[in-house]
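Duplicate of #3305? Posting structure anyway:
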């Protein structure tokens, strides 16, 4: 289930991509399939080991084209182990709401992104997330949980302050908002509640089968209750005079 829409976020074979806070690796895998040179980074060592296994399995199965590479790396988003201007593309999906120093994370992403490079940032959307917080303290008051809820204009202001130029936004995963409302209402750890189990089956069916009815419904509902807010931006090229001054 991808949150980034690659029709709005072009990726060319050979692009060097950083999936920052990659989690289980869904976006990293898609970039690898598209021929990119991918680095998937997360602070969770267990997840990184699983991502590395999947990269190896994809290579063995021939799922990635010639020239594509994939590396899974454990690391700190606030101290990325890469030189300046290392990547053509950076993806940070459902990460910034977890990190107290979100400005520091953005600064690191801008540092490692090449001028002219592209970045995709996704966070939980304000409205659906507020409902979850209102229904359940356990949803967010956990170690490593969500510590803030972004309004769209707030996130875009953060992106601009970091020196990036936003060029597009959208919402995603409307069908997942009711699922999380049910989880929060019946208990975030209570997967046995009948409404939760029934809705989970619907989501699995939708993901696996991609029926037209649910695709149309989600597209219609995304502007209203989309679970995620997605923003795309570019890192501008410095004017020649400014670049020369920065190099001195």
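Output from current build:
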């Amino acid at each position: 289930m991808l949150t980034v829409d690659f029709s709005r976020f072009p990726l060319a074979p050979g692009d060097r991509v950083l999936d920052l806070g990659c989690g289980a690796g869904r976006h990293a895998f898609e970039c690898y399939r598209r021929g990119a040179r991918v680095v998937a980074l997360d602070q969770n060592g267990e997840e990184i080991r699983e991502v590395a296994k999947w990269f190896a399995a994809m290579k063995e199965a021939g799922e990635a084209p010639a020239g594509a590479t994939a590396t899974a790396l454990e690391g700190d988003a606030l101290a990325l182990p890469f030189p300046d201007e290392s990547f053509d593309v950076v993806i940070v999906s459902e990460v910034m709401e977890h990190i107290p120093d979100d400005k520091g994370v953005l600064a690191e992403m801008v540092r490692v992104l090449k001028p002219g490079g592209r970045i995709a940032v996704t966070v939980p959307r304000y409205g659906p997330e507020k409902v979850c917080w209102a229904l359940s303290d356990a949803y967010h008051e956990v170690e490593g949980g969500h510590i803030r809820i972004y309004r769209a204009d707030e996130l875009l202001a953060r992106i601009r302050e970091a020196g990036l130029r936003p060029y597009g936004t959208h919402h995603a995963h409307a069908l997942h908002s009711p699922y999380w409302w049910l989880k929060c209402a019946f208990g975030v750890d209570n997967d046995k509640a009948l409404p939760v189990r029934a809705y989970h089956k619907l989501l699995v069916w939708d993901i696996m089968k991609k029926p037209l009815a649910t695709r149309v419904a989600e597209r219609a509902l995304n502007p209203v209750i989309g679970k995620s807010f997605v923003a795309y931006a570019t890192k501008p090229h410095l004017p020649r005079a400014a670049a020369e001054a920065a190099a001195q």
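Confirmed duplicate; merging threads. The chain has nine helices and seven strands. Confidence is low (pLDDT under 50) at residues 240-247.
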